[in-house]
Amino acid sequence: MQTIYETKITKIGKSVYDFVEDKIFVLFGDNAPADVADYCLLITINEIKGEINKGDFLLLGNHQYKITSVGSKVAKNLEQLGHITLQFDGRESDGLPGTLYLENTDFHKPEEGAEIKIFKQ
């Protein structure tokens, strides 16, 4: 297994789960503006070590999800701001630039302190 990115959830905004019905989580670095932090899983910003590709995997807490598509700005936004959207809809074609698309499956609500990892198997 090659780890491309890893971090931890440092805080869960009070309105994060407002988007659960849409199968979306928004990540943002600890430095998120106050007006958006309530809607985000706040993370520590870390360096990306490699390229994030379709077919890689995301570990969110104890649950693993296959990446189905990678927006063109995901790597840059994740490394600079810690800010991307996780969309669990299985989209395989190009979508929004800052969105990481994941398999359309049941997904679980992460807890504060949970690990987030992107890796190749």
From TrEMBL:
Single GO MF descriptor: kinase activity
Sequence intervals crossing the membrane: none
Gene3D superfamilies from the UniProt entry: Phosphotransferase system, glucitol/sorbitol-specific IIA component (2.40.33.40)
Superkingdom, taxonomy of origin: Bacteria
GO biological process: phosphoenolpyruvate-dependent sugar phosphotransferase system
GO annotation, cellular component aspect: cytoplasm
UniProt protein name: PTS sorbitol transporter subunit IIA
